[in-house]
Amino acid sequence: MTAHPATAVAKPAAPDRVALGEAGPRRSSHPAERSAGAFYLWAGLTIAAIVVIGFSRTVETKLIHPPSPRPAILYLHVAVSTAWVLLFIAQSALVRLRRTAWHRRLGVAGAGLGALIPAVGIATALAMARLHRAEGGGDHAASIAVPLYDMSAFAVMFGLAILWRRRPDYHRRAMLIATCGLAAAAFARFPEWLVPNHAWYPYVDALILAAAVRDRIVLRQVHPVYLCALPALAAAQATTMWLALSAPGPWMSIAHALLR
Fold this sequence. Notes:
The termini are far apart. Mean pLDDT is about 85; it is low at about 1-30. The protein has one domain (about 30-260). By secondary structure, the chain is mostly helical. About 70% of the residues lie in helices and about 0% in strands.
């Protein structure tokens, strides 16, 4: 027996369950948005190149053959951060190839990895600050504002990406912003003639701004994620650098308490 036409129309198909996926029940109708996989793939490759260029200048003396033993947490931090960038590239490639099922499966592992990054990053920053102080390298308490901000910003954008996993246009932009933030440490290791001292955040923001400009050109409007995130990030970055460079008393009390 055939179902009544009105019944067939009224009964919607069950939505797919999406975990860290860019393909969900809410798909963008804009052709450029549906074919954005190439842009995010190239963005991931660009971030990977920045990371390689930046850290290649210090990996030998700071990580492979350091002047003194480094805490094990540092090597874990390097591993999970590298894995995240590779994951972003892989996920973007899967979207580009329309391998939606693989993208969703890999996204489950990505959720665990993303949750691990802030915890490991903060633990590494504190461990390295204690190590430098023990080695007579001076008081690095004020400067821990930088990794604390970096990891907090990543956690917020990653959390929003999880929240928006069924809204592909929001999800992919939050993931891109979170990944761009991880490039700050690499920019900080570029030659000073290219990235002036303590001026790495404008370069991070330039990556995000480039994505916003792409939206303006292709979609004729800047997505709300960029409109909200960029000003908030810039304000938080300015506050972070003020804490790190000015070392106000209240912040130093907090920083020293964290380093005990």
